[in-house]
Write a structure and sequence with these properties.
Helices cover 40% and strands 15% of the residues. The chain is of the alpha/beta class. α10 (230-242) crosses α13 and α12 (295-302) crosses α14 (347-361). The longest helix has 15 residues, at 28-42.
Length: 388
């Protein structure tokens, strides 16, 4: 390259990020925010994070931390965030779902009203009307509605949706106009999550969990077992084993691990690093009832695993049925899951799906995700919040 050719200068910003708690070991929005902070710092931006508490790694990264006192209500917490943000004179305020004082609002939990409706699918039909009626007057839900009204107010801020599903939910349930919505799918660190780690971890993890070489490991990483479809996975796996299929389920996350291997099911419990478990697995299965855009699905894809999830997962919008995996219409149907698993008992099919999965993940990297968000910042008029 000709050294005399100058590159366009990158606009350096003072960026504020708001979230509830900031410990990347908890996964989800906190892990994503930590990776985003590291990207911003490496690009030369000044980053300020506001949360109720922080892991030591956050301040050590060079990010400026501002602790929010933990008042009794979510509304009071949002008000405290606004009070501190007004003093910081930031160029951009980016909130991930905690407060309302921001230029960019990115609800990592999706639409709360849509999530409520999807959670109702976990209850008996006769209970659903009662729960809807109760939500109309219970203080907790009134507070949710009051908070969402301010978070999604049409005052010039842009709303980042993690998927088309979230965008549709925000328009349907919350009245957000399409002109204010920008869809930016989550991204994944394709170096950290890669098939290349199998040689190091696969045999060690499988030996420790007493997994036989012929067993096909169906992995799920989840904390809310019911919402993420763990019962559906367990029921399908038991049926598969009765039919002579070599199914073995490994559940990572949730509470403390249960001891032993019962009926081909191993509960690992919470872990600090999922990479070894992706390496040990053969198929990633997440028949979720609601996920705005599951990071663990992207991690599994990047690790070269075929993925089966549901159409209620925003990350599923990236998949092509029969190429990287499959999508379930009913996350509560073990029979539908068994049908989706059928071609994947074949090792050749798993390899083909896994190669396509890795290629798809490489199109949705963390770097691309971060750059798309910075492009949204470029749409902002600038100087609006600190002058408010």
């Amino acid at each position: 390259m000709n050294a005399s050719i100058s590159r366009p200068a990158v606009r350096q910003r003072r960026i504020g990020l708001v979230l509830d708690r900031f410990d990347p070991r908890r996964g989800g929005v906190e892990q994503w925010t930590y990776q985003y902070v590291r990207f911003l710092l490496a690009a030369g931006h000044e980053v300020h994070a506001l949360a109720r508490d922080f892991a030591p790694a956050i301040a050590a990264s060079g990010c400026h931390v501002h602790r929010l006192e933990a008042p009794r209500s979510r509304l009071a917490l949002a008000a405290e965030a606004e009070r501190q943000l007004r003093r910081l004179r930031l160029d951009v305020v980016h909130d991930t779902g905690t407060g309302w004082y921001c230029d960019v609002f990115q609800p990592h939990g999706g639409s709360r009203r849509a999530s409520f409706e999807q959670n109702l699918l976990l209850t008996a039909p006769w209970q659903r009307s009662l729960k809807r009626a109760a939500a109309a007057w219970l203080p907790r839900y009134r507070e949710f509605r009051a908070l969402a009204a301010r978070q999604l107010a049409d005052d010039g801020r842009l709303v980042l949706a993690l998927s088309r599903r979230v965008a549709d939910d925000l328009m349907r349930y919350d009245g957000v106009t399409p002109e204010r919505i920008r869809i930016v799918y989550n991204g994944v660190d394709t170096a950290r999550f890669s098939p290349s780690h199998r040689e190091r971890h696969r045999q060690l993890v499988r030996a420790r969990l007493e997994i036989g070489p012929e067993e096909v490991v169906l992995l799920i990483v989840a904390h809310n077992f019911r919402l993420k479809g763990v019962p559906t996975l367990l029921a399908a796996a038991m049926s598969a084993r009765r039919a002579g299929r070599p199914a073995r389920v490994v559940v990572v996350g949730g509470k403390a691990p249960r001891t032993g291997n019962t009926d081909g099911i191993t509960f690992v419990g919470p872990v600090d690093d999922c990479v070894p478990y992706y390496a040990a697995a053969d198929i990633y299965v997440q028949p979720t009832y609601y996920d705005p855009c599951s990071l663990v699905v992207l991690e599994a894809l990047a690790s070269g695993l075929p993925v089966i999830t549901s159409r209620f997962n925003g990350a599923g919008e990236l998949l092509v049925r029969g190429r990287e995996g499959d999508l379930l219409d009913d996350p509560g149907s073990p029979e539908e899951l068994l049908q989706a698993l059928e071609p994947l008992w074949d090792a050749g099919n798993r390899a083909r799906y896994g190669q396509a999965a890795r290629a798809l993940a490489c199109e949705h990297t963390l770097r691309r995700n971060c750059q798309e968000i910075l492009a949204v910042y470029d749409e902002l008029p600038g100087g609006t919040r600190q002058a408010a």
